Structure formats: structure tokens, C-alpha cells
Amino acid sequence: xxxxxxxxxxxxxxxxxxxxxxxxxxxxxxxxxxxxxxxxxxxxxxxxxxxxxxxxxxxxxxxxxxxxxxxxxxxxxxxxxxxxxxxxxxxxxxxxxxxxxxxxxxxxxxxxxxxxxxxxxxxxxxxxxxxxxxxxxxxxxxxxxxxxxxxxxxxxxxxxxxxxxxxxxxxxxxxxxxxxxxxxxxxxxxxxxxxxxxxxxxxxxxxxxxxxxxxxxxxxxxxxxxxxxxxxxxxxxxxxxxxxxxxxxxxxxxxxxxxxxxxxxxxxxxxxxxxxxxxxx
Length: 281
Hints:
The chain is an alpha/beta fold. It contains 11 helices and 9 strands. The protein has helices spanning 7-17, 19-29, 46-60, 62-66, 81-90, 101-114, 152-162, 186-191, 200-210, 221-237, 248-266; strands spanning 71-75, 93-98, 120-124, 137-143, 163-172, 175-176, 213-219, 270-271, 273-278. Helix 6 (101-114) links the parallel strand 2 (93-98) and strand 3 (120-124). The protein is globular, with a radius of gyration of 18 Å. The relative contact order is 0.16.
């Protein structure tokens, strides 16, 4: 199956399937939610801040989620924290598309424990080629995952293909600033094996080409810096407890990588926020 993935997606798949990455993201990054959080105080827990992002995004598409038999696709669903919130709170049906088999195994177990397994279908796959035909989803959802595609324009075209007319796409993604100078993100990009990041301008242009309406965009780049700072702090604090779960070499590489993200964010080279678009009815 992996042979059909692009090089960037295959690299991400191998990384997230590794024991080091699986244990790091589950035990340090936030557990159920492994995306950037919204912090109300500098030392707030990663899990609390990360769940707040889910709540804030859900508020933006509340009408769609509240409609009878709403169908949602979560692109890059990780351990399924958002999918469980949506299925549990709104009784919607969620297709959770994710490339990591290791994460998907944890996801399914957590769904069973939460009693929502019948409402969430967890599928291994790439959002560059969403499985299935037709327009079936009321909401497309993604948190800090699309950066891993080498073909982000293709991802948005796939979202357009599977969204119902009038359907909405709400997502976050670590991005570069629209005015980011050439070359300055090399330390960040090398660590995550990418040649570029998206930007607010890029996503707006792709949405324009697809004919989507921009419902609203909220720029919150400071939260990216805060989150990567908190993850580094938590990793240092838990380092001894992680012995045997996460290798020392991985921890050192992660701390260096997190420092690169924080530095780039503080220099104004990065961007992050919630983007929200609607497909024409």
C-alpha cells in the first residue's frame, strides 16, 4: 500500500509508525490530541490547550456538525481525540483517515474505551488520495497534518471532491509566513524532511482556484511558539520516565528540532491559525 504514497507522505508514515515517535507523541505531545494547542496561560497543560483547539474549531462549523446524520472526514486523525469529541458531542459519523498504523491501533482502542467505535471508521490512507467516490461529507477537518504532503494543492482538490455542495473545511497547519525570506527555514524543513511549508496566502489562492468561499481565518502564530516551547519543557521534565520508551538519540533530535521551530516562530518566519472555507452550494 505504501508504494502508492508520495515520497513526502511515505517519509511521514515511516516516522509516525516508529516506536520512538509513537511513544513521544502519545506520552509527551498531548496523548489523545497531537496538534498545536490554544494556551490561556504559559504553563497550562498541553492536553488542556490541545483540546481547546478542537473546541474552538468545532464552534466554527457548529451548524454543520449539529445537522442530522452529519458526516465528517478527519484528515490526519492521529490518535482520534477530535474524532471522539465530534462523534460523542454531536452524534455525527467520522471517517478518520490517517497514515500511521501505530497511531490507528491506539485510536481504535481509545474509541472502544469511549464507547464511540461504531461512529468512527478509522482508515489507513493518504489525504492525497482520499478513498471512495462521490460527495459525502458535510465537514472536512484537519489539524496540523497537511504540511506532511508534498502536494498540498492535491490535498485541497481531494477535499473539494469529497465535500458535499455547501460543505465546509476547517483546518490548522504549521505554515511559513507569507513574507518569509528564502532559505531561513532550512533547519526546520530538514528536520521534518520537507522542502516547503504552506502559507495563509497559498491556502487562500488554492481555495480561490476551487471556487471556495473564505468563511474566516484566525491568525494565532504565537500559539505555535507557545506550544513548541511547552512540548520541549515537558520532554525535558519527563526525560527520565521515558527511558526505555523513547531513545536518547530521538529525544536529542526532537529538542533540537523544537528549538528550531521556536526560533523561526520568534523571528516571524512561521505562521499558524485556523482556516475555514466553504464549498459552493
